[in-house]
């Protein structure tokens, strides 16, 4: 009985915190108009079983070198330009990594199919509950227009400091269907399974905007860090009210589609790519890696 009461009290406390923070954000935003820029760096843990095109296993030294180079390949820098209701999120064009990584026995070709590409422009309008994502699939440009995703965030009272900001922890869990592909002696095997994906976010009420990197939003403060699976997005720098005005402009280029339509197009393109891969003789020393968004 005592434990049950404690749970209820903690739940009520968190609800009160959310109410207070929401009121604080509304008051702050109405009292002033501000802009800002947040710099985010992404990293992803990679785990590949490498073999050359003729089936020979790589040496441990070559594997270690390749793992390091691949990890560096996925360390990217993004800029979130925001005001009180909207934002633009895109990769820093001056810091793009090459998609071909040379190795002693050949090359690694990293192909990113849909989502997260270097030319993507993601616009979010929190007040109007909409987003636009200007993206590409194999050279063809699309403009995704849809409503913002709803996140059922679970707030906690756990805190930590990121730079000079006090951040609070929130989590979100969803079920996702994943297809794992493996190649053995030139044969591609597919295995589909349902998994629970837990997203952990850290946000700060000190910057009272309900926004964050990528599609993340919906918390009572700017999201400073996101961890989902093997990927981490970390805010490394924030500039509030910069001298040069922040341009937050909706992207306009590309064929207009909904998120669901885009997903179907991307799935079709990925299947076509895998079919081409199956029919190609793998007698070279090149390693081709395709990362789907």
Main beta sheet: strand number and arrangement?
12 strands, mixed
Number of strands: 15
Unreliable parts: 1-15, 22-32, 283-293
Over all CA atoms, what is the radius of gyration? 22 Å
SS-based structural class? alpha+beta
What is the residue-averaged pLDDT? 77
Number of helices: 3
Spatial order of the strands forming the largest sheet: 9-10-11-12-13-1-2-3-6-7-8-14
Features of this protein?
disordered N terminus, 12-stranded mixed β-sheet, 293 residues, alpha+beta, disordered C terminus
Report on this model:
- Residues about 1-15, about 20-30 and about 285-293 have low confidence and may be disordered.
- Strands 9-10-11-12-13-1-2-3-6-7-8-14 form a 12-stranded mixed sheet, sandwiched between helices. A 3-stranded mixed sheet has the order 4-5-15.
- It is α+β, with helices and mostly antiparallel strands and about 290 residues long.
- About 20% of the residues lie in helices and about 45% in strands.
- The chain is built from 3 helices and 15 strands.
- It is globular.
- It starts with a helix and ends with a strand.
- It has helices spanning about 1-30, 60-75, 260-280, and strands at about 35-45, 75-80, 85-90, 100-105, 105-115, 120-125, 130-135, 140-145, 155-160, 165-185, 185-205, 220-230, 230-240, 255, 285-290.
């Amino acid at each position: 009985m005592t434990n049950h009461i404690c749970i209820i009290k903690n739940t009520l406390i968190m609800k009160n915190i959310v109410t207070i923070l929401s009121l604080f954000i509304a008051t702050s935003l109405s009292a002033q108009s501000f802009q800002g820029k947040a710099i985010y760096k992404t990293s992803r843990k990679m785990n590949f079983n490498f073999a050359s095109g003729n089936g020979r296993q790589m040496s441990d030294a070559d594997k270690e070198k390749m793992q390091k180079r691949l990890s560096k390949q996925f360390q990217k820098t993004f800029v979130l330009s925001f005001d009180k209701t909207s934002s633009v999120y895109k990769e820093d064009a001056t810091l793009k990594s090459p998609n071909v990584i040379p190795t002693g026995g050949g090359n690694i070709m990293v192909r990113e199919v849909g989502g997260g590409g270097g030319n993507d422009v993601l616009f979010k309008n929190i007040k109007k509950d909409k987003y636009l994502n200007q993206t590409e699939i194999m050279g063809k440009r699309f403009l995704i227009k849809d409503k913002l995703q709803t996140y059922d965030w679970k707030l906690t009272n756990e805190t930590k400091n990121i730079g000079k900001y006090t951040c609070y922890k929130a989590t979100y869990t969803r079920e996702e269907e994943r297809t794992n592909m493996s190649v053995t002696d030139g044969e591609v095997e597919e295995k589909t399974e349902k998994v629970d994906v837990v997203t952990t976010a850290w946000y700060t009420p000190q910057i009272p905007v309900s926004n964050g990197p990528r599609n993340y939003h919906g918390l009572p403060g700017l999201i400073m860090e996101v961890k989902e699976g093997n990927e981490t997005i970390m805010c490394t720098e924030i500039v509030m009210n910069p001298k040069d005005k922040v341009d937050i402009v909706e992207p306009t280029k590309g064929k207009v589609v909904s998120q669901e339509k885009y997903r179907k197009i991307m799935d079709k393109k990925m299947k076509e790519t895998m079919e081409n891969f199956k029919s190609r003789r793998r007698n070279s020393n090149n390693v081709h890696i395709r990362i789907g968004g």
